[in-house]
Amino acid sequence: MRSVMIPNRLAREIDSMFNTFISFPQISAECACDFMPRVNIRETKDDVRLVFELPGIDKQDIKVTVKENVLTVSGERKTVDDENAEVVRREILTGAFSRSFTVPDTIDTDKIAADYRNGMLEVKLAKKEAVKPKEIEVSVG
Q1: Does residue 57 lie within any of the structural domains?
Q2: Is 88 domain-assigned?
Q3: What is the pLDDT of residue 55?
Q4: Tens digit of pLDDT for each residue in 103-122?
Q5: How far is Cα 27 from Cα 15, in angstroms, rounded to an integer?
Q6: Count of alpha carbons within 13 Å of 137, Cβ hemisphere only?
Q7: What is the tally of structural domains in the chain?
Q8: Among 37, 84, 85, 139, which residue's Cβ finds the most Cβ atoms within 10 Å?
Q9: Is position 117 within any domain?
Q10: pLDDT confidence of 23, banded at 50, 70, 90?
Q11: Which of 45, 64, 39 minimizes the C-alpha distance to 126?
């Protein structure tokens, strides 16, 4: 069985199609990149968490910014080649990436935090207090 590599443009179009039909209801995403790191999005009662798969990227090569309710994670995976060896096969994609997500009004942009460990970047988007679910105790009387 032969593996087929999807060109970056086609991969972005497929991702765009899925974002249109199967997307997190309040976060939309865009990508401008040589390769596109995968991301998982999870929601808890206190926050929304985006976990990016970024193996082989140094912490100093990753940038997380928020501007006008748009969260952008960008960076670069650099090629490390041995000058004394010929590349026979290259499957690990390298180059720049940038993924942007529209942050909903329910997120407190002053309380966004990022942690990078073991090739995984976790960005926590804290929810505003007003939108967190409240539990009301029901008393039996």
Answers
A1: yes
A2: no
A3: 93
A4: 988 999 999 999 999 999 99
A5: 14
A6: 3
A7: 1
A8: 37
A9: yes
A10: very low
A11: 45
Residue type, 36: M
Alpha carbons 95 and 78: distance in angstroms, whole number: 6
CA of residue 104 relative to chain centroid, distance: 15
Q: Tell me the CATH number at 32.
A: 2.60.40.790
Beta bridge partners of 57: none
DSSP output for 27-96: --EEE-SSS---EEEEE-SSEEEEEEE-TT--GGGEEEEEETTEEEEEEEEPP---TTS--S---S--EE
Share of the chain above pLDDT 70, in %: 74
Q: What are all long-range contacts of 11-16, with beta carbons under 8 Å and residues at least 24 apart?
A: 11/36, 12/36
Q: Do 51 and 37 touch, CB atoms closer than 8 A?
A: no
49 within some domain: yes
Distance CA 103, CA 75 (A): 20
Q: Which of 71, 65, 76, 54 is nearest to 121 (CA)?
A: 54
Q: Which helix (H) or strand (E) holds 122?
A: strand 120-127
What is d(CA 58, CA 103) in angstroms, rounded to the nearest whole number? 26
